[in-house]
Amino acid sequence: MTKRIFSAMLALLMLVPAFALCSCSSEAKAPEGTITRITVDINPSVELMVDDQNKVISATALNDDGSILIAGEALVGMEAEDAAELIVSLATETGYIVKDEAEASENAVKISVSGDSKYAEQLRKKTETKISDFMEKHDINGKIEKVEAAKIETLRELALSTSLFTEEEVNAMTEEELYTVISAGRIETALLLTEEMRNAYYNAKEYKISFAEREETAKIIEAMGGVYKLVHAGYKTALDAYSKTITAIDNFRYETLVSPDSEYQKSLAELREAKTELLAQKNYVATLEVNGEEYASATITLQMKEADYEELLAAYEKLGADANAALESLIEKMREGEKALIALEEKFSDDIKAELQAKAAETELALNEAKAQFFADFEAAHKDDIQAMEADLIAQKQALINSVKEAA
Asked: Is 371 exposed, middle or buried (0-12, 13-18, 19+ CB in 10 A)?
């Protein structure tokens, strides 16, 4: 037997058990540690982060309608396709998906699944099948569209906005690493149901950790005593100014974008009420016979409600844009304070730099403690707001469900 023939036979023998395994289960498996990002977009839009066992580890609303849809729902722990089906079911209950005479284009469900592996394709098909079966079972005239997953540039932006990694660190990450970072941020803020609250959290955390690191630097210099007291005094003065600006930013963001008493949140409440009326009318029109006696007047009413909603939406978006423009001026002031601190740090003597290096492990420990403590402090500070927001979202969802029932 030649060496080549023997090698070929050995390879064939090795394939036998593998083939036997494949015949038992045709399902592809995700590599260990894989995080898959799935988006379900009906406008509401929801993001699901899924682990290597096909279990949802986080569910995040990507717009306000999505926040309403998933409020009070336990999607975490579900299989991805079941969670996607539940999202579509909730969208149907609340009137975002219209039954009866609706055109298929009105009920488009857009699905994206990250990755180009056999596992990702299989997961997408399972999700689409689950939703398709739901639509067929409930006589919904709709369509499912496959859309491209987020490009790496978008993932980097998400990772930057949901973590404390620097731009340089994020740019060096692989796509798989970015999904891991994003999912960790989503899990951390799972109790924060609105984008405004999450943005407030991420920004406050970033500023807090930046301040905490420099506060440790000030403590180390102060402990050196003697001739270093003057250096400490100058650095502490700049640090205090920096801290005041951070506090001003946090307060302004809360008061203008997060507080229930803010014009922004009042505008959002009006917008949600208008959306409820719009969806109720849309579902009512769908029950009518086209060109029937009531159809023309009901359609005109629908158009009027759409116009009212668009007007309120424009006003809401303007309030947000104005608030962010004002916020940017405060952030610029904070950056100036940061530059002043950096300039002082660059002038530190070799003795101070050596002491800071020697205490690096202690500083890192203090920062890790600050990071670990931050969510608990944030939740305690905003506990009432978080609970009120969830209650408002659940109430809004119930109002939508009731309006759909009344229209039927």
From this structure: middle
pLDDT in tens, 356-398: 999 999 999 999 999 889 998 998 999 999 999 999 999 999 9
Residues 6+ apart with CB under 8 A from 216: 359, 362, 363, 366, 367
How far is it, in rounded angstroms, from Cα 199 to Cα 207? 12
Sheet holding 36-41, edge to edge: 56-61, 45-50, 36-41, 108-113, 143-146
Domain boundaries, the chain: 36-149, 194-407
DSSP category for residue 44:
S
Of how many residues is the chain composed? Answer: 408
pTM: 0.84
Q: How far apart are CA 389 and CA 245, in angstroms?
A: 27
Give me the phi and psi of 43, to 5 degrees please: 55, 65
Q: What is the pLDDT of residues 283-323, one digit of tens each?
A: 999 888 887 888 999 999 999 999 999 999 999 999 999 99
